Description:
single chain, alpha/beta, TIM Barrel, eight-stranded parallel β-sheet, 8 strands, 14% strand, binds phosphoenolpyruvate
Amino acid sequence: MRRPLIxxxxxxxxxxxxxxxxVRGIVAGVSGxxxxxxxxxxxxxxxxxxxxxxxxxxxGWGSQDVSCEDGGAFTGxxxxxxxxxxxCRYAIVGHSERRQLNGETDGVIARKYAQAVANGLVPxxxxxxxxxxxxxxxxxxxxxxxxxxxxxxxxVDAYAHGVVAYEPVWAIGTGVTATPAQAQxxxxxxxxxxxxxxxxxxxxxxxxxxxxxxxxxxxELIGQPDIDGGLIGGASLNAADFVAICQAGEDNA
Length: 253
Ligand code: PEP
């Protein structure tokens, strides 16, 4: 049985004070939950604060990106070892905003994934198609390519140490969610792709859904057989909404 994971991606939002208030609200709201893993991914500058506030709780924290390099002369980058030093458990890699706005390729993303695993972090690999690609019937081709980046560089074993998040680009921040059936279809495809290399790893792999997940649609999405939780953007900035989504994970565990 896969344990649900609900992870909040705060993106580039909020102040230090907002971060503290949000974390306090989440800590209070999820305190009785036993069956769901909960995590928040704040902007880099707030990691220290979040570490201080979440220390000793069951809630994990992570980054929204990680360098594909070990360390050294890479201005502006943050290494996996540094994130580990700040107590991070997770690192999001390959978010569509970074693919689109920062030109990240599957090769670079696979190296980021490998850096995370090598430093004891759990990478959350985002995959997903644009609306145009979906309309052209290319969804499976696109997400397969995203998944294969890591398979080609690190082999299937890498998926024993990570999490995948299916995030259709057309559903991110748009208020339009994939239907549970649409999402389930892609999740099953992703799991099957990994299963071709290792049935055991595929069975244990958590595949999250991301894209306008909210309290009102979370239960039905997480209720699908191959959906193991959510990567939450907008709704993770509101403690009550995020906690309600965590509750949906708890109820489905
Ligand atoms: C995301 O960007 O990871 C995301 C899922 O955003 P939203 O929930 O706002 O669609």
